[in-house]
Amino acid sequence: MASVLDGQLWKQMMVSGAKALELKKHDVDALNVFPVPDGDTGTNMFLTIQSAARDAEKISSQSIGEVAAAASMGSLMGARGNSGVILSQLLRGIAKGLEGLQTANSLQVAQALQAGVDTAYKAVMKPVEGTILTVSKETARAALAAAKSGGSLLETLQEAQEKGFKSLAKTPDMLPVLKQAGVVDAGGQGFLVILGGWISALTGETLTSDTISDGESSPEQHIHKSVELKQEEFLQVESLDYPYCTEFLVKGTDLRVEQMKQDLLDRGDCLLVVGTPEVVKIHVHVKNPGKILDYAIQWGSLHEVQIHNMLEQNENMAHAMKEKTSENPSQPLKEFGVVAVAMGQGIADVFISLGADEVVFGGQTMNPSTEDLAAAVRKVPAKQVFILPNNGNIVMAARQVKDVVSERQVHVIPSKSIPQGISALLSFNSEGDAEGNIQTMERGLSGVCSGEVTYAVRDSQYGDLTISDGDLLGLVEDVIVTTGKSLHEVAQSTLDKMEWKTHDLVTIFYGEDTKLEEVERLQDWLREENPSVEVEVHPGRQPLYYYIFGVE
After folding, report:
1. Rounded to the nearest 5 degrees, what angle is found at the Cα of 48, between the Cα atoms of 132 and 15?
2. Which H helix or E strand runs over 142?
3. 20: closest CA among 226, 208, 155?
4. Positive or negative torsion for Cα 293, 296, 299, 304
5. Can you list the residues of the chain whose pLDDT is less than 50?
6. CB-based contacts of 245: which residues, under 8 Å, 6+ apart?
7. What DSSP element (H or E) covers 5?
8. Is 284:271 a contact under the CB 8 Å cutoff?
9. How far is the C-alpha of 416 from the C-alpha of 188, rounded, in Å?
10. Would you call 370 helix, strand, or coil by DSSP?
């Protein structure tokens, strides 16, 4: 048994922690049964620790300090969700505590854990007890006590884990929303699963889902019964003050973390601004994601932008819970099912009405991962599942689902826009065969022209078009074709570029920031210009895009 921790062992611990959470991430996800952000906490934390482990493995040095630094940067770059960002700050503080060391004994490791907790608390503008912060704080305290009493490296971490589970069991008493839902804190649970993976690396234990401890009190064993009693309350939730969970990386030079934090303090809640002068991770819940992105781009380039509508996540969860507790839980598998990606509740409703079984919320700037799509595929009670990515940036992730889902036959129809996806779904025949459906659905993609109206987030030159920050942009098949200051005029110009007058049908999805009078004005113009063309208008409720057009 190792008496000190070196770089090689820390790499093994990071990999083991990631493996442990990979096995338990869906259990951790299941703890988010109330309408709070990051309803995929387990998945987000897994992606964060996985990124940390990958970067740690790239380091050939045996120095614990150097490997910990690499893991810290990896976690920052890969951090997803509120708990993922906090986890990255725990790892950042641990790296600070181990900086300059070749090896670390139990006391130094315990002190590094405490440094991690201190860093995480500082990163959160308004720390809330009863969360991953509380659980990590108690584990660090227990680790310090054990190490100061002469405990070995293994004994120190085991004592920390034991105290951590006791703290986790108390989280419902600290946060009323946890008690109401009948669960413990998901972030705290995820952290302890990772800690369990670290311990397994020290003992040389091979990880399986059965070997990962859930703690003496096994709070998870009691979760589902408690949740069932609270479903009615959960389903009644209707609104959040700041419904958009927005997170991204800013890369630049001389990035001032504290100034950025202060500038964003009053723009939303659950704010986290962490990083270095070269890379900053921002996570915040807001009413208008576009304003946050406009602010951040002043500092540098934006990367890995993700925006999630938490009200929609809550509605999906409520729907899933209804399905789970229906009178016929063991329905037989049908032959075909469909998963579609949508970027607004109104658009999602259209896909559901046309026969899609599951809708994954995402799109431009908020691409769902392969795991997100795979999870949706697994929910569909069908032997074969068609995926409609509905965005060119999602097609590749969708194709990778075939590699991770073995219990379903997966077919990807490479739809690159919402109108293409709808056209393909309208071509779907549930009574046909797989090959026939693939051919007709792919033919449906070419039968529609897609356009959007959005806005520019910076000054730029695109071909012959000079674009200023805040200008409205019209795109046809992802190519900017027009720009201007008037929403009505840009919408008209975009539709003209789509040659709408020579077609039979114009479909309009208007966004959440588009005023109804603007929609009616555009609709009147279309009817006046060519009354023979049918016009369909739907409240897409999509963010960032004022209009999505389909012409066919």
Report:
1. 100
2. helix 132-148
3. 208
4. negative
5. 33-39, 209-239, 321, 324-329
6. 37, 38, 81, 82, 270, 283, 285, 306, 307, 308, 310
7. strand 5-6
8. yes
9. 38
10. helix
Q: How far apart (Å, rounded) are the C-alpha atoms in residues 127 and 242?
A: 18
Angstrom distances, CA of residue 328 to CA of 325, 331, 349, 355, 357? 8, 6, 24, 20, 17
Q: Which of 26, 70, 64 is nearest to 44 (CA)?
A: 26
CB atoms under 10 Å from CB of 76, counted, come to 24
State the pLDDT at residue 223: 31
CB 74, CB 279: distance < 8 Å: no
Hey, which bits of 297-393 come out as E strands?
Answer: 301-309, 334-342, 358-361, 382-388
Q: Are 136 and 123 in contact (CB under 8 A)?
A: no
Distances (CA, A) of 318 to 40, 149, 232, 322: 14, 49, 9, 6
- Whole-number Cα distances in Å, 373 to 98, 163, 247, 403, 542: 38, 36, 20, 12, 19
Q: Where are the beta strands (DSSP E) in 71-164?
A: 103-104
Angle subtended at Cα 488 by Cα 353 and Cα 484, rounded to the nearest 5 degrees: 120
What phi and psi values does residue 41 have, to the nearest 5 degrees? -55, -45
What is the number of other CB atoms lying within 10 angstroms of the CB of residue 473? 22
Q: What is the pLDDT of residue 154?
A: 94
Measured CA to CA, the distance from residue 522 to residue 514 in angstroms comes to 11
Diameter over CA atoms, the chain = 85
Is residue 223 within 8 A of residue 34, CB to CB? The reply is no
C-alpha atoms less than 13 angstroms from C-alpha of 534 in its C-beta half-sphere:
5
- The residue count of the chain comes to 552
Which residues, 6 or more positions from 491, have their beta carbon under 8 angstroms from its beta carbon?
Answer: 453, 474, 522, 546, 547
Report the predicted TM-score, pTM, of the whole model to 2 decimal places: 0.52
**How far apart, in whole angstroms, are the C-alpha atoms of residue 342 and residue 478?**
17
Rg (CA), the chain: 25
Note the pLDDT tens digit of each residue in 44-94: 899 999 999 999 999 999 999 999 999 999 888 877 767 888 999 999 999
Terminal alpha carbon distance of the chain: 69
Q: CA-to-CA distance for 426 and 432, rounded, in angstroms?
A: 13
Handedness of CA 521, 526, 529, 530 (dihedral sign): negative
Complete edge-to-edge strand list for the sheet that includes strand 479-484: 479-484, 472-476, 449-455, 547-551, 505-510, 534-539
Confirm if 87 and 48 have CB atoms less than 8 A apart. yes
Instruction: Indicate the pairing of strand 244-251 with strand 279-286.
Output: antiparallel
Instruction: From residue 47, give the alpha-carbon distance in Å to each of 90, 182, 247, 516.
Output: 15, 26, 14, 40
Three-point CA angle 430, 436, 442, nearest 5°:
95
Contact (Cβ atoms closer than 8 angstroms) between residue 511 and residue 537: no
Please name every residue paired with 6 in a beta bridge, in sequence order, or none if there are none: 103
The residue type at 414: P
> Can you give the pLDDT at residue 226?
31
Q: Which of 53, 52, 75 is nearest to 281 (CA)?
A: 75
Predicted pLDDT of residue 326: 43
Given the structure tokens 């990515």, which residue do they identify? 389
